[in-house]
Amino acid sequence: MNILLLYIREFYNLAPLKFVTNIILMVIIGMLEGLGILMIIPLLIVAGIIPGINTNNGLTVILNHCFQIIGLQVSLPNLLILYIGFIFGQSWLQRRQSILNLDILQSFAIFLSTRLIRLVASAEWQLILSKPNSYITNVFITELERVYAGIKFFLQMISISLITLIQIVIAFLVAPSLTCLVLTGGVILFIFLQTFAKQTRSVGQEISSLNRDLLFNLTEHLNGMKEIKSYGVEAAQISNFVKIRKEMKKNSNRFNQIQVKTNMIYKIGSAIFISLCLFSAIEIFTLNPQDFIVIAVISARLWPRLSSLQIGLQNISTMLPAFQVLRELENQCLASQEVLEADTPTIIKLEQGIEFRGVSFYYENSRTNYALKKIDFFLTAGTTTAIVGSSGAGKSTLVDLLIGLLQPKEGEIYIDDQPLSINKRKWRNTIGYVPQDAFLFNSSIRENLQWFCPDSSEEMIWEALKLASVDTFVSGLPDGLDTVVGDRGVRLSGGERQRIVLARALLTRPSVLILDEATSSLDSENEKRIQHAIENLQGRLTIVIIAHRISTIRNADNIIVIESGQIVEKGTYNSLMKNKNGRFSTLSCLCNNN
Ligand SMILES: Nc1ncnc2c1ncn2[C@@H]1O[C@H](COP(=O)(O)OP(=O)(O)OP(=O)(O)O)[C@@H](O)[C@H]1O
């Protein structure tokens, strides 16, 4: 419950005035409903439905007094108009309150999701790496929805509680002993049914974990659709999906059964207690008819409310695990916020070069294994450097460190003698990055290109396309720049996609271009095109190429060979090839044999 109160406090802090207005409206609505019930007595008296009525009844006297003040007679039409007035006022306020309620709930929903996206976006890359995408998606889509639902149930419970409380007070004023009897019954039943709240909590926990599994399974299924179809393992994936779905159904049924059971117990309980009340009212408390009617109406309304309160509590209980999941992610992101200098469009004009000084790095989930150990090198500005090594050698880790996504555990990276750690934002504005699995949106080539550079002109776009050797291809398309590339660029070949991503990186006019295995999945024809594009750029900027294939880096000014996280060789292509027993020569032979 503490976690719920924590979010309620944030909810209150977001719009305290609206929150308080909402509560005041709830109280007024509760009072108007109570007055509506009380009106039954004078109505019955004036209509003469209850014979031999004691007209000195407290309520009737107050009403007479009120009517005298406004100069009206206590007549049936006046009473009916007043009754309609109460109901009208209550309904109108209820409408206003519902609108206000939804408004503040929606504002809170926006606040929570915006805060989460900010926290995730500014978290250290290593935290994002440690979470499956589907985990974060699940928190955004499912768990956040459950959190809003939990807050909504909480507000509904406040509203029901206030209305119930006001009616209990009215009933108490009319017939204290009988009200105590009705209440005792209600409280006993309420406490008895609390055991169900615990059960619903465990159902809620299972719902949270099943939602996560379902999304994980679905994401894996969709991402790996090509492989799944190629290996013909659709049935296994589908059966896994169906299994989770069935578990969800089982859970949902369990929750429903608890709620239906609660409802049933309340109905039976209320029948027993209302009968008991009727009997006691007549046989023990000898209540007069008008008071009896008020108590009967309040009791009849009170019991369903108690049942709604109980069900509301159960609903909140089911949602509590979602609050915990959300808080956990928020706290993790908060604890690993990236320290960046103020947002700025400034870039670094690389003049001397980039230096790795004694850089070591390990991933948090494998602290004993260094992915990179004591890396020292200097990349002169304006040159092209290739980093090669076998799979798992540490090339991508090195690129992530170079971009400033990962922080060295030991040592430091310098950009023209300035530590990268204090200039990360400026540095990222300076570089162009083409990753292994280049990403394109399901929109036009133009929109994809302008993603990082929204103000780029037509001329700049074509210049970048030309540099990336993809201008002829784009101009040959029927819709040219307006051609839609499909989800993740599926309507393009691997080579076309990669060259468009290269053009996107070049459009930002970077001083440093980092290509991480940009040709790894391409055939030799496309590889040549990319290579040609890179050769076009050599000398104009500082280029860092991570490559598997030695053929693609023949023209690099420097080559750094990494093995098991350490630099084992450095030099030019020719000097490294001369050392026949060297790692580079071996890698080169392996590539040629492949
Ligand atoms: N997110 C991670 N968590 C834990 N260990 C990781 C993570 N990413 C990489 N590693 C480990 O770090 C080492 C270096 O990995 P890296 O991806 O940098 O190699 P690579 O040379 O780029 O490999 P490849 O050419 O196959 O992409 C490997 O031992 C790898 O298992």
UniProtKB/TrEMBL annotation:
Cross-referenced Gene3D superfamilies, in alphabetical order?
Answer: ABC transporter type 1, transmembrane domain, P-loop containing nucleotide triphosphate hydrolases
Write out the entry's keywords from A to Z. ATP-binding, Membrane, Nucleotide-binding, Transmembrane, Transmembrane helix, Transport
The GO molecular function terms of this record are: ABC-type transporter activity; ATP binding; ATP hydrolysis activity; ATPase-coupled lipid transmembrane transporter activity
The chain positions of domain ABC transporter read 354-589
Q: Where in the cell is it found?
A: Cell membrane
- This one is known as ABC transporter ATP-binding protein
Task: Report the transmembrane regions from the record.
Answer: 20-50, 62-88, 153-175, 181-197, 264-282
Look up and give the membrane topology term.
Multi-pass membrane protein
The record's section on PANTHER family has: ATP-BINDING CASSETTE SUB-FAMILY B, ATP-BINDING CASSETTE SUB-FAMILY B MEMBER 6
Q: What is its main location?
A: membrane
Q: Which domain of life is it from?
A: Bacteria
Cite the ABC transmembrane type-1 domain residue spans from the record. 36-318
Gene Ontology CC: cytoplasm; plasma membrane
Keyword NAD applies: no
Q: Which Pfam families match?
A: ABC_membrane (PF00664), ABC_tran (PF00005)
